[in-house]
């Protein structure tokens, strides 16, 4: 398994995988282009893919601190660092047959390393609580993230405005997001491996 910075050559594969995992109309190439650019700061790319032989089997899209917009689902007063030092973990996905093998963990560690090099001190995420067995929240908590707030109907606006089809709810997403923050001070990036 290789962990590589996300580049435009991998955009079609990442969009395909993201829509298979998160639902139809979750991501387009043009949206991914904007997201990718939001993760590059000081010529350091904070978004990564997991690549097995000839296939993208996972991705992590992350935004650099100061390069993303806080919205009504951000509890800024609860953050342990200033907004200028807060990165954002936008999206992650791993093919089902590769789950449980540390792919998501390694993608996260690679992104954290890049975000720290950019100057970030913590990362925020809105975790999908309806993931099977709430695995997404459990995984992020195990990485050291703390729950700040629970937001009902976090992605409903995507269904209403962009035609997003949720894999759990269908045409009108009612899923809940756990707003979680991961301080970087105690993260050991040496655990990230690249085979």
UniProtKB/TrEMBL annotation:
Pfam families: Acetyltransf_1 (PF00583). It comes from the Bacteria. Residues 1-167 form the N-acetyltransferase domain. This is GNAT family N-acetyltransferase.
């Amino acid at each position: 398994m290789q962990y590589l910075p996300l580049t435009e050559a991998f955009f079609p594969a990442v969009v395909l995988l993201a829509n298979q995992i998160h639902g139809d109309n979750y991501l387009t190439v043009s949206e991914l282009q904007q997201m990718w650019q939001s993760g590059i700061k000081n010529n350091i790319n904070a978004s990564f893919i997991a690549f097995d032989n000839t296939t993208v089997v996972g991705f992590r899209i992350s935004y650099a601190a100061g390069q993303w917009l806080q919205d009504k689902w951000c509890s800024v007063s609860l953050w342990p660092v200033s907004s200028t030092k807060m990165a954002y973990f936008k999206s992650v996905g791993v093919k089902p047959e590769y789950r449980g093998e540390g792919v998501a963990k390694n993608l996260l560690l690679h992104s954290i390393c890049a975000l720290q090099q950019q100057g970030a001190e913590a990362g925020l995420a809105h975790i999908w609580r309806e993931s099977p067995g709430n695995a997404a929240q459990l995984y992020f908590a195990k990485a050291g993230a703390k729950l700040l707030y629970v937001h009902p109907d976090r992605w409903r606006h995507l269904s209403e405005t962009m035609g997003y089809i949720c894999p759990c709810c269908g045409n009108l997403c009612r899923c809940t997001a756990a707003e979680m923050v991961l301080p970087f001070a105690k993260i050991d990036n040496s655990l990230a491996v690249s085979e």
